Amino acid sequence: xxxxxxxxxxxxxxxxxxxxxxxxxxxxxxxxxxxxxxxxxxxxxxxxxxxxxxxxxxxxxxxxxxxxxxxxxxxxxxxxxxxxxxxxxxxxxxxxxxxx
Length: 100
Description:
- The two termini are 18 Å apart.
- The chain is globular.
- The chain has helices spanning 19-36, 64-70, 76-83, and strands at residues 6-13, 40-47, 54-61, 92-97.
- α1 packs antiparallel against α3 (76-83).
- By secondary structure, it is an alpha+beta fold.
- The mean pLDDT is 91.
- It is built from three helices and four strands; from the N terminus they run βαββααβ.
């Protein structure tokens, strides 16, 4: 297994009436990941503009194993299951090696 850092990028298109709830759930997941996951080095949320419903989440993990660990954490599971109904387009998801 590789020990190279990985970057996870997810792009969500959220229903406008669900944006506040989505952002609250995403921020909670980010805060919990940074606080309780040793392999989570960075977790950022970005919206393209005020009131925009496209949200990009970018996280850096020490390696693929740390990312996989993240997907089984108790704080992640409600987020994963809860946000799908808030989306108006399929989730775009990428996990790639971090640039040197």
